[in-house]
Amino acid sequence: MRRIRLLWAWLGTLFFAVVIIFPVYWGVRTSLVPNANLDLIPSSITFEHYRALLAAGFLNNVKNSLVVSLGTVQCTLPIALLAGYALARFDFPGKRYSVVLLALPLLPAIAVLVPLILYMRTLGLYNTLRSVILASTVFSLPYATWMIRGFLLSIPREIEEAALIDGCGPMRALFLIDIPLAAPGLIAVGIFSLISAWNNYLFSFAFTTKRTLQVVPAALLGFITAWGENYGGMNAAAVVAMLPVLIFFLTFQKWFIQGMLAGSSK
After folding, report:
1. N or C, which terminus of the chain has less Cβ within 10 Å?
2. Is the pTM of this model over 0.85?
3. Greater confidence, 98 or 119?
4. For the chain, which domains are there?
């Protein structure tokens, strides 16, 4: 019976691996062969789709997405860290209702899009990447704050109290004690914020009209519309769009997994 359960477990794992990996393989394969080639294992490859992609200025869209994503992480982490620290360590009126933070990201962003556009115009940020960064930060903050709260709760308060007894103030204890111990959790929050901003199409579409300010999702939609049945070119764009996030995740995957496990119990 145990061998049968083990066999089913391996079969299930293999099935999900194939379901996940095969579309990625087929996308990479399609980007490297002429459009007419439908062989499962192609006999020759070409980089014509990637050359066309570079000629279309797609690297500029990748640069815009990197600016927006890294800017969102840079703005989200400090604010979420201080807010999460307050929720984890201090008692104050209304703290019990802080769980409402989790409901805010569930609100459809398109429902408040028109007021946000007017707000960005008032601030003089419309048609700039800063407006996209600001909106992405606002919608990433609630969940990021709650995640950091969970990571800080997993750190024994006695360690911080010992530092306070030795003369550290609350902020110094936060930076010298809590942040190093919660580093995997902060990396997990950073990856979450980066991927969320990287994949966001709505804010770029709403707050920018210049083609030179388009981020990757908006550029991909433009390629789908303009290139018609050029599946090789569209898959080449998808591969290039996937690489930065994949490299970032593979670089920090160890700390990301540690951080998710550390905060999962709170």
Report:
1. N
2. no
3. 119
4. 1-46 (no CATH), 56-263 (1.10.3720.10)
